[in-house]
Design a protein that fits this description.
The protein has seven helices and no strands. By secondary structure, the protein is mainly alpha-helical. The chain has a single domain, classed as Di-heme elbow motif domain (Multiheme cytochrome fold), CATH 1.10.3820. The longest helix has 27 residues. It is elongated and about 75 Å long.
Amino acid sequence: MIPEKSALVVLAAALGVGVGVGAYTFVYAKGYSYVSNAPQVCANCHIMNKEHDGWVKSTHHAAAVCNDCHTPEGIVGKYATKGLNGFWHSFYFTTGTYPDNIQIRKRNLAIAQANCRRCHGDIVHAVDSRQPKAQALDCLRCHSEVGH
């Protein structure tokens, strides 16, 4: 019976240390700030400074914040995307394995594309109506620098 209690104590201690270190890291890294809509949060990591500076100078600055373009509509999709992206951003930043030239991932590209089409619906409809039915144009093919 004693070995089982020892294993349980070790497991509880390891869990406690893991939760404690995780909570400390979350507070130290200001993880709570990432649930906001504040664009400055996106520039917490120096790798995003160029994008943030570009957004500040863009016409989108007056109309949209990062989450308007980079997260899906709805609270569940928004925070699921923020959580997933936040995990990978912190992982690559912590391990130092992020590329110098950040590239948008396929899933995030689809989200941005859907948001372009939603906000600019009238223009998109006019452009799409000139295309064959199966060939909706990719907004970011020509407008990749728009927004930032």
